[in-house]
Amino acid sequence: MRKPFVAGNWKMNLNKANSVALASQLSDIDVGETVDVAICPPSVYLDCVSTALGDGQVRLGAQDVYYQEKGAFTGEISPAMLADVGCRYAILGHSERRHVIGETDELINKKVHAALAGGLIPIVCVGELLEQREAGQTMDVIRAQFTGSLANLDAAKMENVVIAYEPVWAIGTGQVASPEQAEEVHSDLRKLLENSYNQEVAQSVRIQYGGSVKPDNALDLLAQPNIDGALVGGASLKADDFAAIIKAAKV
Ligand code: 13P
């Protein structure tokens, strides 16, 4: 049985005071044992958010990581630095990093290996653009991102990876994928896992859905057999909305 996992990606939002206040509100949520929860604030606020979360059930994640351990890499942050401030997860290959910053599958793959070596759980994002979906290329794109971003991982490593399917056209647009559209890709991703590894890996890897997840659509999305949680942007910035999505994951 896969434990649902709900993560909030705060992106480049909030300031220090808002971040600490939101984290404090979230630390009061009774998460329980049946769902994993994490929030991923901007890197400058990881440390104070970590303190605000304390030893509670809401865990900390970063929005990116660099693949080198240390040295002359101006502006970058290593896996060890993230672990040092209490991070358990790192989002990698988010569509905004792929399409705005220009990250490639090759770079993302190096980050996945480095994150795992540094004891972090990577949340690896895949997802097609609207024009790719309209051209019937969705699974070709997903397959290429899966193969490239997750290259050279053995089964034991793959079992520590979380995949997030985030159709780019659904991110921040309010245009959520229907539960059927999302489930189709999730079940194809699980088949990819089975073909690339084995049944055990396919059944254990969690696949989150992301893209305009809100309290009013979370239940239907999370009811799909191959949707194992949510990667939430906008709705994770409001404690009540995020709490409602966590509640939906428990049902
Ligand atoms: P929204 O929930 O704001 O659409 O963002 C989704 C996302 O990109 C999470 O990583």
What does this structure look like?
- Helices cover 44% and strands 16% of the residues.
- The chain has helices spanning 16-27, 46-53, 79-84, 95-101, 105-117, 130-134, 138-149, 155-158, 179-196, 199-204, 215-222, 239-250, and strands at residues 5-9, 36-40, 58-62, 87-92, 121-126, 162-165, 207-210, 229-232.
- With 251 residues, it is an alpha/beta fold.
- The chain has an eight-stranded parallel barrel with strand order 1-2-3-4-5-6-7-8, surrounded by seven helices.
- The protein has twelve helices and eight strands.
- The protein has a single domain (5-250), classed as Alpha-Beta Barrel (TIM Barrel).
- Helix 1 (16-27) packs parallel to helix 2 (46-53), helix 5 (105-117) packs across helix 7 (138-149) and helix 11 (215-222) packs parallel to helix 12 (239-250).
- Helix 11 links the parallel strand 7 and strand 8 (229-232).
- It is globular, with a radius of gyration of 17 Å.
- The protein binds 1,3-dihydroxyacetonephosphate.
- The site of 1,3-dihydroxyacetonephosphate has 14 residues, from strand 8.
- 1,3-dihydroxyacetonephosphate (13P) binds next to strand 8.
